[in-house]
Amino acid sequence: MIDLEFYPFEYNSPQTNMKIDEFFLTKSKGFVFRLYGWKPYGVSIGFSQQKEKVCNVSYCEKNKIDIVKRITGGGAVYHKNDITYMISFPLEFYNDKTVLGIYRKNAEILMKIFTSLELNCQFAGKVKRELRREGMKNGIACFLLPSDFEILVNGKKIVGNALRVEKNRVLQHGSIAFDFDYEETAIVLNTQKERLKKRVISLKELLPSLTIQDYQEKCIECLKQFGFPLNFKTNCLPFKD
User: Fold this and answer.
1) Which residue among the candidates 142, 219, 222, 236 is catalytic per the annotation?
2) 241 within domain boundaries
3) One Pfam family of this protein, by short name (predicted)?
4) Whether 222 is catalytic
């Protein structure tokens, strides 16, 4: 079992966060797990998306909300009071090297963390094509899109994920709904608050006293249970604001 480089939660700008994730996909060699937040708040969009089509650009400009493009696909995410995670590792690490297989294996790690918080979690399973198409009609915000093996709590989405495989390396990152602002997210991503409330649930709604530090400690505990020897990387990210 290789060591896992664990980068504890810290805030960076939207641009720096994406620069760091790209570094771990293209330059890193080991198994990396990172937790981070966004200051100032920002929107990340999938690499094939156009910001004018998925975001309220004028609102973002007026409120100094930066819009950045991810190196992964998926829908738009408003990063306000969320916990973003990133996992990156050599493709050879998992036996099933298909995109679906990688998603499923990573989802098992995330599921372990959520269940350790005593949440009622389920895997949604593989999404049928017609359901995915219907989801695209309902909006292109990440949390409104159905995805394979997404984790549901009380039937609602709690984390949105995106993945990229480049050469012999994998990167998956995602937004965990920690303290979700339904009203402003609806404005920023051109959707409706009621639609988000039907589809999304946040950790703070389920566990009001939970802190980011509490969640991080559960991450560490669960990664150790998977057998990873942890190598803590404090204050040594490749880029800083």
Assistant:
1) 142
2) no
3) LplA-B_cat
4) no
